[in-house]
Amino acid sequence: MADTTLLFLHAHPDDECILTGATMARAKSLGMRTIVAYATRGDAGETSNDLGGETLGEVREREARAACDALGVDRVLFLGFDDSGMEDTETTKNPTAFCNADLDEVTARLSLALVNETITAVIGYDRNGTYGHPDHIQIHHAAHAAAPALKADWVLDATYNREYLASLDGDNYDKAESNPEAFATSEAELTHFVDDEASFLAKMTAITHHQSQMPDEWKDSEAEPPVEEFAKRFGTEWFVTTAVGDTTDFGALEELLRPKAEWSSPQT
Ligand SMILES: [Zn+2]
Q1: Average pLDDT, the chain
Q2: Number of Cβ within a 10 Å radius of residue 162
Q3: How far is the CA of 19 from the centre of ligand 1 (A)?
Q4: What is the pLDDT confidence band of residue 267, given thresholds at 50, 70 and 90?
Q5: Comparing 211 with 124, which gets the higher pLDDT?
Q6: Which fold has domain 5-245?
Q7: Ligand 1 is a single-atom ion; what residues have CB below 5 A from it?
Q8: Which residues are CB-contacts of 214 (< 8 A; sequence separation ≥ 6)?
Q9: CA angle (30, 14, 217) in 5-degree steps
């Protein structure tokens, strides 16, 4: 499958692990070429770490490159837009924030960087940007806008299973309950998933490179990493697949993704 190239379009460093880390690892194990393009360096994020003179963007770019290395990613690109920050904050008004980017400009930057690549599929996010972050919503639009220009056959919206997450106890998915239409994707709309143990373990290893984004309780060396908890929430990576143009052949993606019909909830 050396002739299959997947372009993962991500908003910020660490999104690649949380949303698609297992899929990236699985693609690599199948011999596919993987490219990650980050819209931003996550410079408007938060951290409780001492940055030691570096900016948060510099730290997060370094962490992202290390995580991608761990996942066997072949190429890492940074598209150079600014992090928009969370919805309803001042940073979303920044004219160079990704959420305000012209989609033609995003496509142009991707096309220039990828001029020598043959892209099979572009992986972005669902129309809610999974949980409503303005940069994540923009990734949805950017992936669908860029895919035809890149002559990709498929767009894969990475997402969560809304009803499944809402059913978990003690979670923070208030939005899944209070405003479900704005959170992730209804199970009925999901089409495919990735869920295998080796790929999940690769995702868990890669995510440890994002030290600036770790919750403080994970940084305690005495603490057991919450692998089981993480597996329950993020162990299955969900997608909604859309053909670009009139493609009907799923090709090598058949090996990568399983159809939703094969999924059974770990809650039941
Ligand atoms: Zn993000």
Answers
A1: 92
A2: 27
A3: 9
A4: low
A5: 124
A6: Rossmann fold (3.40.50)
A7: 11-12, 15
A8: 208
A9: 120
